[in-house]
Amino acid sequence: MPIQHLSIVGTGLIGGSIALAVKQYISNCQISAYDSDPSAIEAALRLKAIDRSVPLAQIGAGADLTILCTPVGQFERVLREIAPTLSAGTILTDVGSTKRSITKLAAELLPPGVEFIASHPMAGSEKRGMDAAHADLFQRAVCMIMPKPTTPEVAAGLVEAFWTKLGMHVRRLLPEQHDQIVARISHLPQVMAMALTAIQSEETLAYAGKGFKDTTRIAGSSAPLWLDILKDNREEVLSALSLLREELDGFERHLIAGDEPALLQWLSTAAEKRRNVGLQT
After folding, report:
1. Domain range holding 187?
2. Nearest CA to 158 among 103, 89, 221, 214?
3. What's the pLDDT tens digit per position in 166-219?
4. Does one domain contain both 9 and 103?
């Protein structure tokens, strides 16, 4: 079923990029949007990313698909506000960085007949807002979707086809799998980038080159946004931190002992894994 009417809640970097990508890659699709910040909606209208602004209470009316693009910490408030307005047959998804909590909230708050299929496009930037959005943000990136066992295939297929049209490689998995994976490949790297930045002084930062800037680029991301994510995925982030400590402890032992073969093996294994990133998509 082609998507003819899309609704977006939140026109920041991700919501705005979705709108621009739809305008470029999906023909004849009307886009309605809501944002609590009037300037964000004004920017989306100015850039012709959306066709109309609607109140939150009307966001799902007539839409083939509605996407929640707010920070994780706002999901409960938004779901509580829109749930009474949604009718049977509505398909709802999101772009949040954690999945167990919103899947549970959706099951508790959404009326019968409204299908919620969690999504997480693995694309983004440390930049924020509609002005940082661009249509090719999702090209060749991975999107994880989490249909429930009871989700009709027609609904799951619509969400999968939507992300595919935006240029993404779609993978289906469980919310628990998702939260464990992103703790290791997204949430822990965010913490590490911030930790690496935190230990620097003004003097050392004055000498920082491209390697340091590339490694810590995401440390410039929104602190309140990441606070919500890390709180929501606390147990999996703690588990990932434990794995990292074990790895660093092993490296430290090799370095103290001056064990060159072990150090070379450690470095080579990591380098090989890094070279293979993205080759499986």
Report:
1. 178-275
2. 89
3. 999 999 999 999 999 999 999 999 999 999 999 999 999 999 999 999 999 999
4. yes
